[in-house]
Amino acid sequence: MREFRASLVKEVLLLRRDVGALIILFVMPLLLVICISMVQNGTFKSMTEAQVDAVLVDRDNGKVAQHLRDALSASGRFKLHLTGDADSAKAIVLAGKAQLAILLPEQLTQHTHGLVRAQVNKLLVRMELSTDTLPTPLPGTADPVLLVFDPATQPSFRAAVKMGLQQVMLRVETEELITSLEEQMDVKPDAAPVEMNGFIPLEEQAVKQEVGPEPDSTQHNVPAWTVFAIFFLIVPLSIGLVKEKAQRTYIRLKASGTSTTVFMLSKVVVYLGVALLQFTSILLLGIFLFPYLGLPGLAVAGHLPLLYLTALMIGLAAIGLGSLIGAVATSHEQAAPFGATLVVILSAIGGIWVPVFAMPPVMQKLSLFSPLNWGLSAFHEVLLRHGTIVDLLPWFSALLLFFAVTAAIAVHQYAKKSVQ
Amino acid sequence: MNYLVSTKALTKRYTGAEQAALQDLDMHVGAGEFFGLLGPNGAGKTTLISILTGLLQPTSGAYAILGADQTSGTRALHGKVGIVPQEIALYPSLTAKENLRFFAKMNGVEGDALHNDPPELLDRMGLGRHANKKVSMLSGGMKRMVNLIAGILHRPSLLFLDEPTVGVDVDSRNRIVSLLKDLNAEGMTIFYTSHLMEEAEQLCTQVAILNRGRMVCQGSPAELIRAQPQATTLEHVYLQAVQEHA
Questions:
Q1: Taking the C-alpha atoms of A408, A412, A418 and A419 in order, what is their torsion angle to the nearest 10 degrees?
Q2: What's the pLDDT at A309?
Q3: Between residues A419 and A16, the one the model is more confident about
Q4: Is A274 strand, coil or helix?
Q5: Which residues of chain A does B108 touch, with a Cβ-Cβ cutoff of 8 Å?
Q6: A97 within 8 A of A161, measured Cβ to Cβ
Q7: Pick from A62, A133, A291, B196: CA 20 to 30 A from residue A21's CA?
Q8: Is the CB of A2 less than 8 angstroms away from the CB of B53?
């Protein structure tokens, strides 16, 4: 026990004096969580709430084009900048000054009105409200409304914008249809206007009624990047282990009868403390600082014990992996980039960057083998699904087993490789 | 005689090596001796110390340390054996005092000894005013002296020293040699390797010369010098022994 305490003190002193490690462990994770949350929150807004800069070229100059322009502006999602021709619009987009150009074709009004009248006429004949059985000549195929996107925009952004535009165009088409119908049926000008929406209301409901606020970008981002940050402790941990091999301090301890397990255990305890401190600092950041940064605050009410237990399990898995890398690596030049790259790969596989459900089937299967995925799933279970300890057991078991296996191999390999 | 170290047909062959690092080594070190293990680079000195301190397993043969055989493990010798590796086996970001207190604690030192001995020994070696400096800030000679102190704070019965004076200035070497003499005079058995024949002749009560993993000769420096008519120093004995068995 005395040896263990002495080792603990030594580990704390070593860590306290390693400025680089302290930055990696405590400053970088906070910066990472802030940056990613702000960026992702902005991206989320750009697809849902924020205005998109769009250059509009109106080659129709008719009623439908005007109707479309009004509807786009009224939607609040597009900030329209009118320009004269397609080339200058494309140049603006290419320069990144607008995210897209909307090119309205010539004769848009004529084609749309022709098609609408033909449809209304057909409808009136079917309703026997018109005797005009003569076929209405079809006005030919209309040229499409063209969208030109900035190459820097993401496919998800383009899909969201297209969907938004289609909604606006559908509304315009419906309004044109009703206006034409009213004209052909001689509806009195002072008649009550037709309601255009709200027939089938759409609302989102929480999967569990007792839960608090709906999950927002913070609830998704903070757990993901917390797992990533905790796993980054493998870099200083593995470097420290490699240094003790190279400095022969471990040899001195081993020769004096110190057990490798005690030596490793002191590192486990200290780095577990580091993981919990990291977690605490990220929690405080999410709860108290995020609202000042214009981000949704992190809601953890009622979940703290399970969240800390989850962070503890994730910390153990990260320590196991870091110990293994430190035991096997022969130099810190080997351990540091390998450890860092491995965390990035495991995080990509584990759903930190892109949700697992959005991955190709092969990657979804691979994600089952990433300890970062187990950790993230456990956090989601607590924060988003409001699970109990029983729901968390599969993830905790996987993380604990991973720690046990990697730590056991690390102890064996470290003792073996240190004397070579 | 009471042997603190004994080996019997001790052999170590590294995987893939053409020649054994140690071959059928029989050797005894009695209590209270200052034993010098001499030999050229690659003779097997460090391999022998690594085996005797439990860091390496021999390929064949047997050995015993302080009465405990090789199956006992290093734990059985906890606090009884000290080791001073050839490398500076200290934590560079800890101070000299922090390093010494740590290694002392790990070897079971406690109470007054833990508080008093590190500063006393640092003072004796002329390092008192550097006690609170980080090891990384000390000179090569100072580091080597702290490296030595870290191995003796727990007053082991048997001390292994792997080239303790390599690369140090004359003053530091004199301090180290003086300390080692005193420790041996107090009863500590010292097992030491060196390339410095004059130093070995001055310090050792028994000397063994290893060459290419085999024991070439063993005895007190005076006996070995007497045994070779043309030799007047241990260095002569050493050179002749190494050349004969090249």
A1: 170
A2: 95
A3: A16
A4: helix
A5: 2
A6: no
A7: A291
A8: no
Chain B contact for A10 (CB, 8 A cutoff): yes
Of B197, B140, B137, B196, the closest CA to residue B168 belongs to B140
Sign of the Cα torsion B16, B18, B24, B30 reads negative
Instruction: With CB atoms and an 8 Å threshold, state whether A252 touches B160.
Output: no
Q: Is A252 within 8 Å of chain B by CB?
A: yes
Residues 6+ apart with CB under 8 A from B37: B45, B48, B49, B191, B192, B193, B207, B208, B210
Q: What is the 3-class SS of chain B, one letter each residue? A: CCEEEEEEEEEECCCCCCCCCEEEEEEEEECCCEEEEECCCCCCHHHHHHHHCCCCCCCEEEEEECCEECCCCHHHHCCCEEEECCCCCCCCCCEHHHHHHHHHHHCCCCHHHHHHHHHHHHHHCCCHHHCCCEHHHCCHHHHHHHHHHHHHCCCCCEEEEECCCCCCCHHHHHHHHHHHHHHHHCCCEEEEEECCHHHHHHHCCEEEEEECCEEEEEECHHHHHHHCCCCCCHHHHHHHHHHHCC
Model pLDDT for residues A147-156, shown as the tens digit of each residue? 888 887 777 7
Q: What is the pLDDT of residues A252-271, one digit of tens each?
A: 888 777 888 888 999 999 99
pLDDT in tens, A129-175: 766 655 555 556 668 888 888 887 777 778 887 887 888 788 888 88
Nearest CA in chain B to A252: B83
The A residues from 18 to 47 touching B (CB cutoff 8 Å) are: 18
Q: pLDDT category, B200, cuts 50, 70, 90?
A: confident
Give pLDDT tens digits for A120-132: 888 888 777 766 6
SS3 category, A76: coil
pLDDT score for A139: 53
Structure tokens at B222: 């005076």
Mutate to test the interface with A, among B55, B78, B109 (most CBs of A within 10 A): B55
Count of positions (residues) in chain A:
420
Give the pLDDT of residue A353. Answer: 80
Q: In what side-by-side order are the strands of the sheet with B81-84?
A: B81-84, B158-162, B189-194, B34-38, B206-211, B214-219
Is the pTM here over 0.95, yes or no?
A: no
Mapped onto helix, strand or coil, the DSSP state of residue A105 is coil
* Residues of chain A above pLDDT 70, percent: 90
Check: CB of residue A263 under 8 Å from CB of residue A407.
no
Could you tell me which residues are beta bridge partners of residue B193? B37, B162
The yes-or-no verdict on residue B128 having pLDDT over 80 is yes
- Dump pLDDT digits (tens) for A336-380: 889 889 999 998 888 888 778 778 888 888 888 999 999 999 998
d(CA A7, CA A26): 22
**What amino acid is encoded at A49 in this protein?**
E
CB contact under 8 A, B85 and A247: no
For residue B218, give the amino acid letter. Answer: Q
| Beta-carbon contacts of residue A39 (< 8 Å; ≥ 6 apart) | none
